[in-house]
């Protein structure tokens, strides 16, 4: 089981950084622009963040390949960024699949494409 208290402070800081990027840039840019800006903001806040990293993918305990993730923060929170008009359940399912495959317990889905930053925190028991 995941201890939510362990992740609350970190996810709060990440969401705050994403809100700052969205306030500064608003919507309308491609996802890669938000990725670059968010990396700068996370680093300014002293958070250990890696962008566009290859993570191993597991199935039934066996490594079956690798996939590039948008961000890994603090070695334990996976970020999936979008720049769309809105999020839907498919985007949430994608992130949950990544959490399972990468064996990472907490993920944040961040959408910079809407008029206000949209975010969802998702948890995966591993």
UniProtKB/TrEMBL annotation:
A Pfam family annotated for this UniProt entry: PDDEXK_3
InterPro entries registered for this protein in UniProt: GxxExxY
Protein name as catalogued: GxxExxY protein
């Amino acid at each position: 089981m995941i201890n939510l208290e362990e992740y609350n402070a970190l996810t709060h800081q990440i969401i705050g950084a994403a809100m700052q990027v969205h306030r500064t840039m608003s919507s309308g840019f491609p996802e890669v622009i938000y990725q670059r800006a968010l990396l700068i903001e996370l680093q300014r806040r002293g958070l250990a963040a890696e962008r566009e990293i290859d993570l191993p993918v597991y199935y039934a305990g066996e490594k079956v390949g690798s996939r590039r993730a948008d961000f890994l923060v603090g070695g334990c929170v996976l970020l999936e960024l979008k720049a769309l008009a809105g999020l839907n359940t498919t985007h949430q399912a994608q992130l949950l699949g990544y959490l399972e495959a990468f064996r990472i317990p907490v993920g944040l889905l961040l959408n910079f494409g809407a008029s206000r930053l949209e975010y969802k925190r998702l948890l995966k028991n591993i």
